[in-house]
Amino acid sequence: MKTLFTEEGKGEIIRRIEQLTPQHKPVWGKMSVSQMLAHAQKPIDVATGDGELENGFVMKMLSLLFGKSVKNKFIRNENLDKNSPTAKTFKITDQRDFETERKKLIARVEKFSEMGSKHHLGERHPFFGPMTHEEWDLLQWKHLDHHLKQFGV
Description:
Elements: H1 7-19, H2 33-48, H3 57-76, H4 98-117, E1 124-125, E2 129-130, H5 133-150
Antiparallel strand pairs: 1-2
């Protein structure tokens, strides 16, 4: 599996992000390319400790009941399912500036790669539960790859 913790893997994802233009349309889903760029930052922020996932009572209960099984499904499956459910706090519905969001996503990919290569990521995901270094990397790679494919890059 490809990894964001190497220059090669990080470079591949960044090159694909850089191929996007404001004119890109989704192959599936409702987000604009600018909204996708903003959305893709959210899970990285959780991994690096710069963002949070909704953490109310219902979310905690769902995490206890289903977190580990959902994490294992994501890890086992080669690709994420199109139109998969998204945490409310990760949904982007307002309009965003394309270039601003692209720069922010690239900066977050670089930060995740740097932190991960030094094993400075959290040990627990707010929904999935305990996470290994490799699981954080795999889930980030799959999420970014999924949305870049969504826009044909």
